[in-house]
Amino acid sequence: MRGVAGGDDRADGSGGHAAGPRFGRALERVAKGFALAGGVMLLAVTALTVTSVVGRSVFNRPVLGDFELVEIGVAVAVFAFLPYCQLCRGNVVVDFFAQRAGARARARAWADAAHSLIYALIAALFAWRLALGGVELRAWGETSMILGVPIWWGFVPMAASMAVLAVVCLYTLLRSLGEARR
């Protein structure tokens, strides 16, 4: 069976790409873990929102600062989904260019490779800037207005998600280059 990270099961054990099947499976597990954590975060944010709305409507007591927690939680969740989305080729950019390439598999693979390279560079830049921003926010003691939650807390998982995304993009670049050479 072909997983999202693996290629075909070649006799040389490469899985159809330069990085190898073992690394691809490990990367898939990491990306899935991030996506699951993002899903859990969204469930928690949903529960918080429902609790606040019911509290406001029924008891005239909303959850104080709920919008601050929702804001941070949704941002963390969205960033957590990106590595798995890239690994599964779920990005709109890839679909847009792949349709223009038509049935030519090699042209699609080259478009995927170009997208992966550009996306890897952007993800690495974001990981770097989010990490620096989090360090600076921590040094400044920046907190949310109502609850006083340290803002830098949200930057840690977002920077980690971008770092994983950069690695996933490099992996998908190698995968696409392998497909383009076939």
Overall description:
The protein has helices at 21-58, 66-87, 92-101, 105-140, 152-180. The protein is elongated, with a radius of gyration of 20 Å. The chain has five helices and no strands. It has one domain (21-180). It has 182 residues and is mainly α.
Explain the layout of strands and helices:
Layout: H1 21-58, H2 66-87, H3 92-101, H4 105-140, H5 152-180
Helix pairs in contact: 1-2, 1-5, 2-5, 3-4, 4-5
String of helices and strands: HHHHH
Domain module count: 1
Q: What do the pLDDT scores average to? A: 87
Number of helices: 5
**Estimated helix fraction:** over 70%
Oligomer: single chain
Can you count the beta strands? 0
Tell me the β content.
under 5%
The class by helix and strand makeup works out as mainly alpha
> Terminal Cα separation, in Å?
20 Å
Radius of gyration: 20 Å
Unreliable segments of 5+ consecutive residues: 7-16
Descriptors:
182 residues, mainly alpha, 74% helix, 5 helices, 0% strand
Brief rundown of the structure:
The protein is mainly alpha-helical and 182 residues long. The protein has one domain (21-180).
